[in-house]
Amino acid sequence: MGTKEATKFHKELLASVEKLSAIADVHGPQTLADIAYLQHAVLTNGKIESNSPGSAIEAVVSDLQSADRWLKYIRRESDMASKRYWAVSGRIPNEDGDSMLVFFVGTREEAEKAFDRAMWKGRRNAKSDRDHLQVNFGTTTFINSIVSSASPINLESVK
């Protein structure tokens, strides 16, 4: 991904039109803005949403030579329809203090697995510690609560 991929996207895009302003002339200014967001998504291996009012980003990208490659950087409404926001709170057994993390996944089980992965990410001796906790507690994380929402969940620190 990264710079090479973003450069390839830009070259393909320029080969498809005489000038970039033609995209705005034909498909509107929001589509041209979404092209810039898409190039950044390609550069950072991220995603953009395709539901901007007045945007024809999917139509423009679908006409490119490597359309399938670029469309994967666009999150379609149909992709989002089956996912929800999940706020999961809990901790690793034998540790003090709970954590609350938010995930955008399809099911409660996916949220629980994502929480477990996030809690253990980057820890030293994770394999042996996880094995020990699984034997002694039957789990590698204690989950205290889970909240689900179709709308984004924002966590704020309380001081």
Description:
By secondary structure, the chain is of the alpha+beta class. The chain contains eight helices and five strands, in the order H-H-H-E-H-H-E-H-E-E-H-H-E. Strands 4-3-5 form a three-stranded antiparallel sheet, covered by helices on one side. Strands 1-2 form a two-stranded parallel sheet. 16% of the residues are buried.
Query: Percentage of helical residues?
Result: 40-55%
The rough form would be described as elongated
Rg, Å, rounded: 21 Å
Strand content: 15-25%
* Sequence of strands across the biggest β-sheet: 4-3-5
Let me know the average pLDDT: 88
Sheet with the most strands? 3 strands, antiparallel
Output the helix-strand order: HHHEHHEHEEHHE
User: Would you identify the regions where 5 or more consecutive residues have pLDDT less than 50?
Assistant: none
SS field, number of helical segments: 8
The total count of strands amounts to 5
Structural class, by secondary structure, is alpha+beta
Distance between the termini: 40 Å
Secondary structure blueprint with pairings:
Layout: H1 3-16, H2 21-27, H3 29-44, E1 48-49, H4 57-62, H5 67-71, E2 74-75, H6 77-81, E3 84-91, E4 99-105, H7 108-120, H8 126-137, E5 142-149
Parallel strand pairs: 1-2
Antiparallel strand pairs: 3-4, 3-5
Based on the model shown, name its key terms.
single chain, 159 residues, alpha+beta, two-stranded parallel ribbon, 8 helices, 49% helix, elongated
What would you say about this model in short?
With 159 residues, the chain is an alpha+beta fold.
